[in-house]
Amino acid sequence: MSKTTMNKMSRRKFVTAGLAATAGVSGTVAAVALAKHYGLVPPDSGGIYGPGETLTYAAQRLLTRHSMAREFPRSMISKTPFANELAPFNDAFKRFQASGFADWRLTVDGMVARPTSFSLSDLRSMPVRSQITEVVCEEGWSYVAEWIGTPLQHVLNESGILPGARYVVYFSIEPDWWESIDMADALHPQTLLTYAMNDGDLPVGFGGPLRLRVPRQLGYKSVKFITHLTVTDSLKRFGKGLGSASPEGGYAWYAGI
Amino acid sequence: MPDAPSPLASESPRHAAFVRVTHWITAICFFALLITGAEIVVSHPRFYWGETGNDLTTPLFKIPIPASRALVPTGYGYTLPDQNGWSRYLHFEAAWVVVLTGLAYVLWGLWTRHFRSNLFPAPSDRRLGAFWAIFAKHLRFQRPDATEAFSYNALQRAAYLGVIFVLFPLVIWTGLALSPGFNSAFPLGVNLLGGRQSARTLHFFVSICILLFFLIHIAMILLAGFTNRMRAMLTGKPIFGTTIRGVAAVSAEPGTEGQP
């Protein structure tokens, strides 16, 4: 191979590599800008795991915005549902428990036209929806149960969601236990505020008296003992601004995988 | 022994630059996925068949190790440190990198006819006898002859094709079938596998198959000459000195090539 050919070869390689690198960088910049514009970047997208989380969340939002979690026939309801261990209940919870949760209330505030609070009987008088779906724990185990409640969408509409709302943040009565979901999940017909399970009231071990079920995500997004919902356009003001308590404890905010 | 193309005359590398780069990205992702996958299993080292399974149901089998979660009935009186959070983050990030890399590799391989010329067994080798001859050679612990530094034999080709076109697609499929979001959009993916817990068990077994491939891959590289094989995959150039002696030995005594 002559020297001229070598030079031509390396020059061509150099130009090709340069073009590929430029295309790669500008492609990534454009993709990030598009993802931000369409709300495809999760709140925990900083750090070394950010690119993976963003790819997962963006891909799933493009594919699953309206998809329905699998529902099962009644014969597949697990005879032995399993509930993970809970920290000892705080005094506030014990007081509600002593009175049979008669005074339990769900407060809805933030970007809503009519901030309000609902009693359990208010919620029970709303449209009832039930679903037989699987609870999937990040540890690996699962069970199928029938969940009965009212769609979160209905409760939010009762309060009047203001334009610009992007997330719903929800809090347990237990401290430091809160999560948030985007509007695609919040308005999803299978996202239920559940107060009953299988044949009776929702047992305390499974989140009674009120648990938000998000069946398209892992179990840890289905927070137990819900007392408070906040509609917001930004998660920056909540906790460390990572979206929920999970990323603060090292777990992904988006748990659709 | 057919004439090997003279290695010295050839300017083309043993492995194309694209193969070398994608190979090492895949290797890094493999380790990340293996370690984090093991950490995730440790949080619940029980496996089930069907749709559901938990601490209150009978497992298909258990791995006899302590768990990183207190409630799992492992028979041990203690729990391991919980590493699930970062393990899950890294598992999915590495999965993205290896899937995108694998996609680029397959497209490149089809475009450049890499699979046809380097991995599909040569026409003369597409019979059981050819596989058996190589297999028997391995059983007699014969070292590979010189030509094998420049091309893969039929058994190697079958193994690489199996990993690329069977095990990798299977591990991606069974992994995706564990995603509740993905399953809501493509329920057939998990239903065809027999349910969520079956998918998890299969994901585990396919991972074990890939791990076995990796162990054999490393053992064979050690047997064939670690430095030469490593240099070929890093720089594209096998070391020629040893190869020339090997070629000379082949032409001198065809019956005894490469024997230790």
CATH class membership of the largest domain in chain A: Alpha Beta
| Number of E-type strands of chain A | 10
Query: What is the oligomeric state here?
Result: heterodimer
Average pLDDT of chain B works out at 86
Gap from first CA to last CA of chain B: 19 Å
Q: What is the H/E order of chain A?
A: HHHEEHEEHEEHEEEEH
Separate helix tally of chain B:
9
User: What is the end-to-end distance of chain A?
Assistant: 53 Å
Overall shape of chain B: it is elongated
The percentage of residues in β strands of chain B lies in under 5%
CATH homologous superfamily descriptor of the largest domain in chain A: Oxidoreductase, molybdopterin-binding domain
| Backbone structural class of chain A | alpha+beta
Helix content of chain B: 55-70%
Task: Describe what this molecule looks like in 3D.
The complex is a heterodimer of chains A (257) and B (260). Chain A has 257 residues and is α+β, with helices and mostly antiparallel strands. Chain A folds into 2 domains: 3-60; 70-248, Oxidoreductase, molybdopterin-binding domain (Sulfite Oxidase, Chain A, domain 2, Alpha-Beta Complex). Chain A has helices at 3-37, 50-64, 91-98, 120-124, 152-159, 183-186, 245-248, and strands at residues 105-110, 116-119, 129-136, 142-151, 167-172, 178-182, 192-197, 200-201, 211-213, 226-232. The relative contact order of chain A is 0.16. Chain B has helices spanning 17-42, 84-111, 114-119, 128-139, 154-176, 180-185, 187-191, 196-235, 240-252; strands spanning 46-47, 61-62. By secondary structure, chain B is mainly alpha-helical. Chain B contains 9 helices and 2 strands. Chain B has a domain at 1-15 and 122-260. The interface between A and B is large, with 44 and 43 residues.
Write the topology of this structure.
The complex is a heterodimer of chains A (257) and B (260).
Chain A: H1 3-37, H2 50-64, H3 91-98, E1 105-110, E2 116-119, H4 120-124, E3 129-136, E4 142-151, H5 152-159, E5 167-172, E6 178-182, H6 183-186, E7 192-197, E8 200-201, E9 211-213, E10 226-232, H7 245-248
Parallel strand pairs in A: 1-10
Antiparallel strand pairs in A: 1-2, 3-4, 4-7, 5-6, 5-10, 7-8, 7-9
Chain B: H1 17-42, E1 46-47, E2 61-62, H2 84-111, H3 114-119, H4 128-139, H5 154-176, H6 180-185, H7 187-191, H8 196-235, H9 240-252
Antiparallel strand pairs in B: 1-2
